[in-house]
Specification:
This protein is an alpha/beta fold. Helix content is 43%, strand content 17%. The chain has a seven-stranded parallel β-sheet with strand order 3-2-1-4-5-6-10, sandwiched between helices. Strands 7-9-11 form a three-stranded mixed β-sheet. The protein has a two-stranded parallel ribbon with strand order 8-12. The structure holds nicotinamide-adenine-dinucleotide and thymidine-5'-diphospho-beta-D-xylose.
C-alpha cells in the first residue's frame, strides 16, 4: 500500500459514501475507517466494501487520545478525513455535553495525535476537517449567501460545537504548522442517512402512514446537496485544496421545508402506487425547533473556480433516487429504528 488515509466517522451517513469512493478509487491506499459505532454508525453501511483488500475497520472513540496515538503509529497515517461527530441538531438541544465531548474534545485528540505523529515531517500529510454551513448562523430570506469569509455565528449547541472544532483545527495550523484544510457543507441527502433527519424520517413516516412533523410553519430554507457530490468535493479538497484554506460546499439548491415535504409526499406516493395526494393529510405543523435557523445558503464559487467541482445531480433526480432507495431498503430503516432509536423517537414525537 502506498499510503494510509484515516477516515473517521466512516460508518455514518456521509462517511460511508466517502469510504466507498476512496476504497474504490484509490486501490493502492489503505483506507482505515475509524468509528465508535454510536447509534448513528452502522457497519451495514459499509457491507459492500468490507472485504476490499485496502479496507480496515477500527472501532474506537476519537476522544481516546492514547488510542488515537496508537492508531497513527500502527498504520503510519499520512492523511486524515475527519467526519466523526454528533450530527443531529435536535439531540444537541437535549444533550449538549455529548456534542462538546465528541465534536470538540474528540477533534482535539485527533489533532494532537496527528501533530505528534507528523512532527517535523509534514510533507505530503493532510488533515481535512469536515464541517457544516451551520457555523455561519442564519441568513434572512434575502438572496445573500455564506462565503468562506462570513463571520461565525452559531446558534445551536451542535453548530457551536462544530464552530469550536473548526477553530481548534485552524489553531493547530497557525500554532503548530499542522497541514489542515476545512470544508463547510450544506445539508446532505441520499442513502444511509439516519432516519432522524428530515428526509429519511419523512420518507419512512409516509411509508408507515405516520404524521410528518413540520417544525413551525415550514418556512425555513435549506440548501440540499446529494451526498455523493459531497464525497466528490471532499476528494477534490483533500487532494488538491490549499493547505490552511477553507472551502464552502453547497448544492445551489434552496428549498423551503414545506415545499420539500410536498415533493417527498408526491414522490413517495407515486413510487408506493398511492393515488396523488394520498399522504398529504400526514403533514402536521408542530412546535418550532428552539433557535431554529431561518435559512442556509452556500456560495461555492471558490470550490468551483479553484478545483473545478460542481454538483452532478439535479434535485429531482436525486430525490427520486433517494426515495426509491429508502423504499427498496426498508429492512435497513427498520433495523435502525428498532431498539434504542424506538425509545428516542417516542420521547421526541410521542407514541404513534
Ligand atoms: P452521522 O451522524 O450520520 O455519522 C457520524 C458518525 O460518527 C457515526 O458513524 C458515529 O458512529 C461516528 N461517531 C460519533 N461519535 C464518535 C466518536 N466519539 N468516536 C468515533 N466515531 C464517532 O453524521 P453525518 O451526517 O454523516 O455527518 C458527518 C460529518 O459531516 C459530521 O462532522 C457533520 O458535522 C458533517 N456535516 C454533515 C452534514 C449533513 O447534512 N449530514 C452537512 C455538513 C456537514
Ligand atoms: O422532524 C423534523 N421536522 C422539521 O421540520 C426534522 C427532523 C427537521 N425539520 C426541519 C428542521 C430543519 O429546518 O427540517 C430542516 C432539516 O432538518 P435536519 O434534517 O434535522 O437538518 P438540519 O438541522 O438542517 O442539519 C443538517 O444539515 C447540516 C444536519 O443534520 C447537520 O449535521 C448538518 O451539519
Amino acid at each position: 500500500m502506498k499510503r494510509t488515509i484515516l477516515i473517521t466517522g466512516g460508518a455514518g451517513f456521509i462517511g460511508s459514501h466517502v469510504v466507498r469512493l476512496f476504497v474504490g478509487k484509490y486501490p493502492d491506499c489503505r483506507i482505515v475507517c475509524l468509528d465508535k459505532l454510536t447509534y448513528a454508525g452502522n457497519p451495514a453501511n459499509l457491507a459492500d466494501v468490507a472485504q476490499a483488500p485496502n479496507f480496515v475497520f477500527v472501532k474506537a472513540d476519537i476522544c481516546d487520545l492514547e488510542r488515537m496515538r496508537a492508531v497513527f503509529r500502527e498504520y503510519d497515517v499520512e492523511g486524515v478525513i475527519h467526519l466523526a461527530a454528533e450530527s443531529h441538531v435536535d439531540r444537541s438541544i437535549r444533550d449538549p455535553f455529548t456534542f462538546a465531548r465528541t465534536n470538540v474534545l474528540g477533534t482535539l485528540s485527533l489533532l494532537q495525535a496527528a501533530s505528534e505523529h507528523w512532527a517535523g515531517k509534514t510533507e505530503g500529510k493532510r488533515f481535512h476537517h469536515i464541517s457544516t454551513d451551520e457555523v455561519y448562523g442564519a441568513l434572512q430570506a434575502d438572496g445573500t449567501f455564506f462565503t468562506e469569509a462570513t463571520r461565525y455565528d452559531p446558534h445551536s449547541p451542535y453548530s457551536a460545537s462544530k464552530a469550536s472544532s473548526d477553530h481548534f483545527v485552524r489553531a493547530f495550523h497557525d500554532t503548530y504548522g499542522l497541514p489542515t484544510v476545512v470544508s463547510n457543507c450544506s445539508n446532505n441527502y441520499g442513502p444511509y442517512q439516519f432516519p432522524e433527519k428530515l428526509i429519511p424520517l419523512f420518507i419512512n413516516n409516509i411509508r408507515l402512514g405516520r404524521p410528518l412533523p413540520v417544525y413551525g410553519r415550514g418556512e425555513n430554507v435549506r440548501d440540499w446537496l446529494y451526498v455523493e457530490d459531497h464525497a466528490r468535493a471532499i476528494d477534490a479538497i483533500f487532494h488538491r485544496g490549499r493547505i490552511g484554506e477553507t472551502y464552502n460546499i453547497g448544492g445551489c439548491n434552496e428549498w423551503r421545508n414545506i415545499d420539500l415535504v410536498r415533493v417527498l409526499v408526491r414522490t413517495a406516493d407515486r413510487l408506493l402506487g398511492n393515488p396523488e395526494g394520498h399522504s398529504e393529510h400526514l403533514i402536521t405543523f408542530v412546535a418550532d425547533r428552539a433557535g431554529h435557523d431561518l435559512r442556509y445558503a452556500i456560495d461555492a464559487r471558490k470550490l468551483r473556480e479553484e478545483l473545478g467541482w460542481e454538483p452532478s445531480l439535479q434535485f429531482e433526480e436525486g430525490i427520486e433516487k433517494t426515495v426509491r432507495w429508502y423504499l427498496d431498503n426498508r429492512k435497513w430503516t427498520d433495523d435502525v429504528t428498532s431498539g434504542e432509536y424506538a425509545n428516542y423517537y417516542e420521547q421526541m414525537y410521542g407514541r404513534r
